[in-house]
Design goal:
- The complex is a heterodimer of chains A (264) and B (89).
- Helix content of chain A is 36%, strand content 28%.
- By secondary structure, chain A is an alpha+beta fold.
- Among the domains of chain A are: 75 residues; 67 residues, Thrombin, subunit H (Beta Barrel), CATH 2.40.10.
- In chain A, the strands form two sheets. In chain A, strands 1-12-3-4-5-2 form a six-stranded antiparallel β-sheet, covered by helices on one side.
- In chain A, a hairpin with a 5-residue loop joins strand 10 and strand 11.
- Chain A is globular, with a radius of gyration of 24 Å.
- The N and C termini of chain A lie far apart (69 Å).
- The chains are: A alpha+beta (264), B mainly alpha (89).
- Chains A and B meet through helix 2 and helix 3 of A and helix 1, helix 3 and helix 4 of B.
Chain lengths: 264, 89
């Protein structure tokens, strides 16, 4: 027997109206060149920075340590020692950040003068996006242009800038799920298909000599490295071998990236 | 109403908040699970908005890409409507 709630047709009418509304909003965003999208991404950047700050404060406060360890700490540490620890923690965070930024300085020094780029913070997790994208905290105002290459501190290309806001940019991973890129290793060019998370696979002839840990370059990205050969699977029954390409840095741990202008 | 038996509105609100927050911070499957859970149980407009937010936030924006989450939201909401009417009290 149907109750009065289900006999009421208004929820369906409301749902239909809202379905039309979200489609309209999406089309409006596409037609306006991403106005809604850029506002939302700006908000996401601010939220991300706040959550990182709050998360860091909570982790620093030791709130989620076990009761036993907290009791032991309370017994052994004086207030002064806690202050020193806090300072040491702050120093460690700064040192780590400094190391990363110093690596970018080397990268910039290694590039030609007209290839000067921008260092930008990564403001979203790479695991959040189903499309193999992530957000960086620099945009049009910082001189970034669509199509710019995005590099790690080690000089590996991780993605390309595909969309720009005033102070944010969307980066599409080179190895986004299903994305294809021309790669070169062992003196041969082949097509590598991304599987997300900085991993890709490629089928190459079995006669081709490729070593594990050999760097893989992308001719279309200015012959820059895009990863290393992680493993090779081959069978005597097959004429080809499967090469697994990995990025030597964990994408989730990236805090800064270096953006090279598109002309390079 | 105890915390062990939360009202339907609370459950719906909970999934909606997790879904929206998950679109920003959590792995992509968290909002997807929330969308499925909401669509199975309620005629939830929140499913459409979670899908819209996911696509606006994470689509590469290079040319036209299929807004998979928005389409999934619309399909879930409307495909689950007769199921809800048939099976839920």
């Amino acid at each position: 027997m149907m109750n009065s709630y289900r006999q009421n047709k208004s929820p369906h009418k409301r749902l239909l109206a809202l379905t039309v509304l979200v489609i309209f909003l999406f089309l409006l965003d596409v037609l306006s060149g991403g106005f809604i999208r850029h506002q939302l991404r700006g908000g996401a950047v601010v939220l991300g920075q706040w959550s990182r700050y709050v998360g860091g404060s909570i982790a620093g406060s030791g709130l989620f340590r076990t009761r036993a360890s907290l009791e032991a700490q309370n017994r052994s540490l004086t207030e002064e020692l806690a202050q020193f620890e806090e300072r040491a923690g702050g120093y460690e965070a700064l040192r780590s950040e400094n190391e990363q930024l110093r690596a970018f300085v080397h990268l910039v020094e290694g590039s030609s003068k007209d290839a000067q780029g921008v260092t930008a913070p990564v403001v979203s997790s790479v695991r959040t996006s189903p499309y193999g994208t992530f957000l960086i905290g620099a945009g049009e105002s910082e001189g970034i242009v669509r199509g710019s290459h995005v590099l790690t501190s080690g000089g590996f290309v991780v993605g390309k800038v595909t969309d720009l806001g005033a102070h944010t940019a969307t980066v599409a991973e080179i190895f986004a799920p299903g994305a294809s890129v021309e790669a070169m290793a062992g003196g041969a060019v082949f097509s590598a298909v991304g599987s997300g998370g900085g991993n890709a696979r490629a089928k190459v002839p079995r006669a081709l000599t490729i070593r594990i840990d050999e760097p893989v370059f992308a001719p279309e990205l200015g012959q820059r490295p895009i990863g290393i050969v992680g493993s090779i699977a081959s069978s005597t029954a097959s004429a080809s071998q499967e090469v697994f390409i990995v990025l030597p840095v964990n994408l989730s741990s990236l805090r800064y990236v270096y953006i090279l202008p598109v002309r390079n | 109403m105890s915390i062990f038996f939360p009202s339907e509105i609370k459950i719906r609100f909970f999934f909606a908040v997790i879904g929206i927050a998950g679109a920003f911070f959590a792995p992509w499957w968290v909002p997807l699970i929330c969308m499925i859970a909401l669509a199975l149980r309620y005629p939830a407009w929140e499913v459409l908005f979670i899908g819209l937010v996911m696509d606006l936030l994470w689509l590469p924006g290079e040319g036209f890409e299929m807004p998979v989450f928005l389409i999934a939201g619309i399909v879930l909401v409307w495909i689950c409507a007769p199921l809800r009417q048939q099976f839920l009290p």
